Records
---
Amino acid sequence: MPFGFDPVETEKVVKEVQDKVKKVYVEMTVDWLKDGSMRPLSFTWDDGREFKIDKVLTVRKGNSLKLYAPGIRYYCQTGKRRYYLYYEGEKWYVEKQL
């Protein structure tokens, strides 16, 4: 087995993590820039609370770190809290621990 990875064991660990996390789709307000990219401004959580995004720290194409769903990952800051927002096709979501 190369590098000591057991694919069966790895799949079990991934499944355990995925069972503890779910996607929560959120309503977003975004600003479209001249180059066609988006800058998230705020989002509304599933209970109706709205959060203004103070700063976008990084933007990367890639998978969700826990759910492995493809899309664009935005690392954002609201106040002192930092979190990932994901853009998946036409939808935005946040990972929520169960």
---
Amino acid sequence: MDSKAYEKGIETLNKMVSPDILEQTVEGVKKFNPDLAKLIVEFPFGSIYSRPGLNLKQRSLMTIASLVTQGAEGQLDFHIHAALNAGLTPNEVVEAIMHCLPYAGFPKALGALGVVRRVFEERSISV
């Protein structure tokens, strides 16, 4: 394990999600496979999200678009929370989903919208 990248990843994640979500996510994966948990923290968050050049808001917007186009709804709730914490407005999140519509199609965009609605309900956000 690259302890610097891991520490940087945890630092970045602390800016993006609540301590509860961070602990649930990392500890949940760690119980299943500790090496995978380390990689999840070190690579995307310690090495990519923490790079200069784009801020967390911009990176979150790109992540949402990528997840929508892949149909990766299982990862989307975590990243919607992170995007809101990074400064995206609820309207910007919805617009990002809408922008993916011509590229990803209705099924993926509507699936993503369902995730967004659940996250907004959890956070008592109305649009």
---
Amino acid sequence: MDILDARGLSCPEPVIMIKKAMESCEDAYEIIVDNAVSRENVTRFAEHNGYSVRITEKAGEYTLAITR
């Protein structure tokens, strides 16, 4: 599983990154974002596509563990 680094990017770029990654049809992904809007949009996109999302926050950065 690759870790996608979307820090410094604003939406919709993090959503596009996870969408492209999901084309590989893996069961798990991890993406790091640094703003609440990206966190919410990536979470919404992943859940809409049948994944569950676990979010951890550290020093203003959010790591989203996305699993099927």
